[in-house]
Amino acid sequence: MPATTAQGASLSSEPKTAGGSQVAKGAAANMAPPETTSAADRDAMKKYWSEHSSEATLEEMMLDSQAKELSAKEMPQILSMVDVAGKRVLELGAGIGRFTAQLAAEASHVTAVDFMESFVAENRATNGARFGDKVDFVCADVAECGAALAAERSLDMVFSNWLLMYLADAEAEALVQHILGWLVPGGVVFIRESCFHKCGDAARGHHNPSHYRSPQSYAALFERASLVSATATTYGFELVRSQNVTAYEELKGNPNQLAWVFRKVARSVDGLSFQQFLDNQQYTANGILRYERVFGAGFVSTGGQTTTEEFTAYLGLGPGQRVLDVGAGIGGGDFLMADRFGASVLGIDLSTNMIKIARERAAARTDDLVQFEVLDCTTCCFAPASFDVVYSRDTLLHVEDKLSLFRRFHQWLKPGGRLLISDYCCGEGVRSPEFQAYRAQRGYHLHSPAAYGDLLRQAGFADVRAEDRTQQFLEMLERELAATESNSAAFIADFSESDYNAIVGGWKAKVKRVNDGDQKWGLFQATKLPAALSS
User: Fold this and answer.
1) Is the separation of the CB atoms in 90 and 6 below 8 Å?
2) Could you give the CA distance from residue 172 to residue 47 in angstroms, rounded to a whole number?
3) What pLDDT is stored for residue 44 in this prediction?
4) Cα separation of 282 and 415, whole Å?
5) Does the pLDDT value for residue 28 go beyond 70?
6) DSSP state of 432
7) For the ranges 139-153, 174-188, 389-403, which has the lowest average pLDDT?
8) Are 127 and 118 in contact (CB under 8 A)?
9) What is the CA radius of gyration of the chain?
10) DSSP character for 165?
11) In 180-328, at which residue ranges do the beta strands (DSSP E only) sit?
């Protein structure tokens, strides 16, 4: 969830348009800086990079004496985050071409842009003859050429490995808005940035004009972007995934190098993506901490540590095993599996607020057994047989097509791998109007415990055990409610009276739904058969 290693950042001179380039032909005539651009800021940035580009080496570009080792170690991870095959790619901050060749090898066309002439010349010398018209090399400053750098809806991907940190806030905001216009619907943008502080060991002199923002600042930057098409469709970005760049954790002890992939999508009528609904309504930062107060330190799901200890004991975990936690929340269960069993855990969640807290807590650990990513479990990809266990707590209620998801789980598990899910369920038959309204407001897609088990069998799982744990759920709800009410003064002091009323009212409503037979809670366990038994 960084380093000052930077790959050219902004960009300056005239774009070219030969060889199928996606750079607009009128770019050179439209280089006037936007009103928000500070000439002093741009001059400072150009001076800064002039001082660090005289030899156009990897060490200069990455501002680090370990550049070769870092580059070799991080490149496979970064390239694994994007699918370049057949895509029209605009590479911003291309530097000397560290990624240009990798992108051009699979893309249909790459426009590699940087604002340092020495970097562009080195990139052209290295990759120009090799790829011919498949790559255009452009010297330009993205902070100055605005929307003219590419035509509307002309790109499938924008790739930027260190760039926004070299732009002022208004410049970064303008560039993200331009990217939204350049991409086709469904197109993606990859960014990688240094957060919080510098990391590269190269001397910076007295003035370092880089902007070391928080990861949340970058997520919010893309969340704010919006445009309305000629057909009155509103488009914005949704976050596809976010990762720490592990090379910097391993070689530098630095967890603050982050990479993101965002996708251009049509917005719903209210203008919110599902992820924004989670972060802005259901799982706000304050809301998460309220839940943690109720469930216990580190936990935001039913029963907190008590149920986590019970359920993880069923899994037969041990050192060296890999666990995928789908809907990891703030990571309490993942830390428990690592500490108690020595398992290696990847926790994924669509809520950036959840993962922010989880990453902050992971950074305080002395091991690297637990990693967190912002990922959508319905669209992300893992190699077959990647995990020994898939684990999920009270998360999949948000997923409509559970059968497809369960088939993905089955594919991701190793033969003999285990699945454990707890989730909200509903009673059989038609439920009350109040419960139907609750499900609609939350966007929940619920099944009875028996129907849930049937879906797991249809997905190919064996030894399916579908348990109705509603009585246990009710007992925990009543215990949590009583504890919150008995500590009302402390809760209100730490949060507010309205927060307290929201929690108490919400828990009482859950108790009523359970007593009415509307809401249930299920525990589901299953196994992927060993290869010899599944054939």
Assistant:
1) no
2) 19
3) 73
4) 36
5) no
6) P
7) 139-153
8) no
9) 25
10) G
11) 183-194, 227-228, 234-244, 257-266, 322-326
